[in-house]
Design brief:
Layout (H helix, E strand, L loop, with lengths): L3 E3 L9 H18 L2 H11 L4 H4 L1 H50 L2 H28 L6 H27 L3 H7 L5 H12 L3 H20 L4 E3 L3 H10 L9 H22 L1 H7 L4 H4 L4 H17 L6 H20 L3 H9 L1 H5 L2 H10 L6 H10 L3 H15 L9 H13 L8
Parallel strand pairs: 1-2
Helix pairs in contact: 1-5, 1-6, 2-6, 2-8, 4-5, 4-9, 4-19, 4-20, 5-6, 5-19, 6-14, 6-18, 11-18, 11-19, 11-20, 11-21, 15-16, 15-18, 15-21
Keywords: Cell membrane, Membrane, Transmembrane, Transmembrane helix
Protein name: Sugar MFS transporter
Organism: Xanthocytophaga flava
Length: 426
């Protein structure tokens, strides 16, 4: 029988193993998620796409969170956290295996189907793991714990474009120049070979997912009960409310999270194309996503050291939003390498937004906490919508001017940090 740990329990002896297991899962999240930053230029070449079409990679992946978030909450109610995590890992494995027929046929729509299935599995894992981290300890230090998970996530995300980029994008500069002079048959043969480079890496990742599912199955991962002292303290508030949407801090937090994930994905997944805009070769540009992700690691370390002893979660959110505005405006009004480095700086600015929004949005939801968590996970769909808009703006304007899209996003996040999370009623 699994141990049931009350949320906000002050006993810490049970924290180490659950947090270690969740840390491994967050490493997995990061490695798989930020593979998209390499898949975008890779599939753009292999499947002969324009810019906006290539950003369907992020759309297919992140829209699955919106579609699957509420069903994921229902699944977790039926299965519990542990079995739900195992199910999510196995669903992801199926999505990875879909890449094999996609590569063999070089069919973009099948690649997108595989990405959607992988994202669906991740939605189950995210729905379980984020509130798990939030409630497994004092709410005041929730952002600190999420920051630790963020380091695992973004270290993996930093490795992903470097490792997989060296496989997928090998000799693509030469190939990109050659295909312009090849016959249709020769070009198709070259692009078929390029598309099939994903088969071995994705087969290995599928096997790793099965191994991780077995690790979770045999682990002593405790279940977390939502019936805790936090819920008791919120009883007076929640008993008078009939809908989760009656909590402004949650609804506004959902919007802030939606916008945040959008700008985070834009910073990480468009920087390779932005490097090409300023003259980088494709093989060189494919390594640029490591810079914003490295900045996020630095930001997470700062969060661990500063929150909550020296910095409250909402103040960290204020600093992050203001920093995002400064870096974005700088990238818009500079040129070349400086503009690219300022764009990469968004990674540092973004680091503490996710860990700060979650506890602020879930604060005092009481019995609505599980549903509120599912709604917040739906906000990850911002990574589907905003990069697609960026791609369309790039085709109409250019890769630099399209970044004006992130300015209103950071302004709303700043509003949520200053006032929105304090709003108690409509």
């Amino acid at each position: 029988m699994q141990t049931v740990v009350p949320a906000q329990s002050k006993t810490k002896q049970n924290y180490a193993l659950p947090l270690a297991i969740i840390g491994v899962l967050f490493f997995l999240f990061g490695f798989i998620t930020w593979t998209n930053s390499v898949l975008i230029p890779y599939l753009k070449l292999a499947c002969e796409l324009n810019t906006s079409e290539s950003y369907l990679v992020t759309f297919a992946f992140y829209i699955s969170y919106f579609v699957m978030a509420l069903p994921s909450g229902w699944v977790l109610q039926k299965t519990g956290f542990k079995k739900g995590m195992i199910l999510g890992l196995l669903v992801m494995c199926i999505g990875m295996l879909v890449f094999i027929p996609a590569a063999l046929t070089r069919t973009y729509s099948v690649f997108l189907l595989g990405l959607f299935i992988v994202g669906s599995g991740l939605a189950v894992l995210q729905t379980a793991s984020n509130p798990y981290i939030t409630v497994l300890g004092p709410i005041e230090s929730a952002a600190q714990r999420i920051s630790i998970m963020g380091i695992c996530n973004k270290l993996a995300g930093t490795l992903s474009p470097l490792l997989l980029g060296s496989i997928f994008m090998k000799d693509t500069d030469k190939l990109e120049a050659q295909i312009k002079t090849l016959s249709e048959a020769a070009k198709a043969a070259q692009l078929d070979e390029l598309a099939q480079r994903v088969i071995v890496p994705y087969s290995i990742m599928a096997a790793a997912l099965v191994g991780l599912a077995m690790m979770v199955y045999f682990s002593h991962l405790p279940e977390v009960s939502q019936s805790d002292d936090t819920e008791d303290k919120a009883t007076e508030t929640t008993s008078t409310r009939s809908s989760v949407l009656s909590f402004p801090n949650l609804v506004l937090g959902f919007i802030a999270l939606f916008l945040y994930v959008g700008v985070e994905v834009i910073a990480g997944d468009t920087i390779a194309g932005y490097g090409q805009f300023w003259g980088y070769k494709l093989s060189e540009a494919s390594k640029l996503p490591a810079y914003p992700l490295g900045g996020m690691v630095i930001g997470y370390i700062a969060g661990i050291l500063l929150i909550p002893k020296y910095l409250t979660q909402n103040k960290a959110l204020v600093i992050s939003a203001v920093s995002g505005l400064i870096f974005a405006i700088g990238a818009l009004f500079t040129r070349g390498d400086l503009s690219i480095y300022l764009l990469a700086g968004l990674g540092l600015a973004n680091a503490l937004i996710w860990p700060a929004i979650w506890p602020l949005a879930l604060n005092k939801l009481g019995s609505f906490t599980a549903l509120g968590s599912s709604i917040l996970v739906m906000g990850i769909a911002g990574g589907a919508i905003l990069p697609l808009l960026y791609g369309q703006l790039t085709d109409k304007l250019n890769a630099q001017q399209a970044y004006w899209l992130v300015i209103p996003c950071y302004l709303f996040i700043l509003y949520y940090a200053l006032a929105g999370h304090k709003k108690k009623s409509w």
